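The pair is listed for reference:
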Amino acid sequence: MRRALLALTLISASAGAALAHPVMTESSPVHGSFLAQSPKEIRVAFAENMIAKNSTFSLEDSNQKTFRLGPAPGDPANPTAIIVPVLDPLPAGMYFVRWKVASAKHANVPGVLRFRVGS
């Protein structure tokens, strides 16, 4: 009984900590996915409403070469999401989207999304 109570307490504390800042809840491309071709945009949704104008995104490959992204507006259909246009076609390879996002309660919360283009 004590173990079950301790486990429940730890799970509750972990969930509370995870919700303490903007946690990614979904993305397109999906984290860790393989894409046949370059995406035209990157969409990231979080566990709370975001302030897109106070958030920054960057895109780089596994050699740390950066690729151009357009302005990152909020998603008009979903205040928890930010859409980032990819301005250049991405050649085959591994990519990392890095961000520092802001919500009403938090600023500069970092995160990363990984995906692969091509085979």
